[in-house]
Amino acid sequence: MSIHRKPIGERIDWLYDVARRYSAAYCDPEASMARERHRARHPTAIAVLKCMDGRINIPIATNTPPGIIQPFRNLGGFFDLGWPHLGEVIEHYVHDRVRSGQRVLMFITYHFSRGEPHRCCAGFNYHTDQAIAHVFGVKGQVEHVFGRGHATVYPLVCGFETDEDALVLHGAGGATLDVSTLGTDETEASLRARLQPLFPDMPAAMLADLARLVAGNVAHVAEVRKLDRQLDIEHREWMICVGRGFDFLHAPNLALIIGPYSPDLADPIRKAGAIIASNMHKGRIPDDGFLLLASSPYQDIGSDRARAELKARFMAHFAAEVIRRDLPDLAPRMTVHAAVLNWATRGLEALD
């Protein structure tokens, strides 16, 4: 039976088991050394600004080891670097990477479906043109903050086609490269030749690392085409996740993930709740309940973990109150959990 069809209690138990297995795999010595090898060969730091939609899993779609790509998630891919918390988090991330001698390739993404308009981004009411206009605006903000010369931080607008998990890269002069059109005979060298005219100002080492990501996506798309994904590409989310630290959610359409960035956090929570209610109403998921999970990561034990606990509890309480106030029919079916995430082990620790 699909996990989406099981009773809510079994779904929640399954979720924590997935989190435990993800942490164990992340901490495995072979996995740790694989990340080190990858960073040695591909030194560019990769960040992705993306929608909360669980289908958008860039590490899986590019065959990249877990823990390499830094995600920032919010409803519909809505971001504004003027938001105080978001601006600080991204600035700290960039400067940490720069101090370690890395450049940063920042994917600013939107998503869409070629097969069915209502599998496009619900956050933009399925209007992909509006999503594209927004992410180009975010690109301009990144350039305003980190420079237009792109020598250290390179913002790249990228579409994500959810039916096949294919990237669509937007380059100079409005040119694009749709990875779904590429054959598996492409090499990283041939991909660099394709990419260089699109990104003529991209540093050579970064271009090589981008070509590796594209090569991974070519291989992933080829595998996806062998599968029947009709169920996977429908919206069937049964969780609302608020905060950070949800990389363990591998499978598509499990969760609507809301980063703690917007000054108006109630708006994405309300919209996510409406999507859950719609999924129940249309029979995509059982109507016996959904999970509201708040998480905050911590680096160190002591005060850092204690503050993460307070943040997670606050977000859980805040989100639950939004659901109770604005979606009273959905609220009785809500189970609320708070957790902290050990960043070193990627271990999810449930709070009482």
Describe this protein with a few key phrases.
single chain, 352 residues, alpha/beta, Beta-carbonic Anhydrase, Chain A, 2 domains, six-stranded mixed sheet, 41% helix, globular, Carboxysome shell carbonic anhydrase, Carbonic_anhydrase_sf
How would you portray this structure in words?
The protein is of the alpha/beta class and 352 residues long. It folds into 2 domains: 43-224, Beta-carbonic Anhydrase, Chain A, CATH 3.40.1050; 239-350, 60s Ribosomal Protein L30, Chain: A (2-Layer Sandwich). It is built from 9 helices and 11 strands. It has helices at 8-27, 29-41, 58-61, 84-99, 128-146, 188-198, 204-224, 266-281, 303-326, and strands at 45-51, 69-74, 104-112, 153-161, 166-170, 176-178, 239-243, 255-258, 290-298, 334-342, 347-350. A 6-stranded mixed β-sheet has the order 2-1-3-4-5-6, with helices on both faces. A 5-stranded mixed β-sheet has the order 8-7-9-10-11, with helices on both faces. Strand 10 and strand 11 (347-350) form a beta hairpin. Helix 6 packs across helix 7 (204-224) and helix 8 crosses helix 9. The longest helix is centred in the last third of the chain and has 24 residues, at 303-326. The chain is globular, with a radius of gyration of 20 Å.
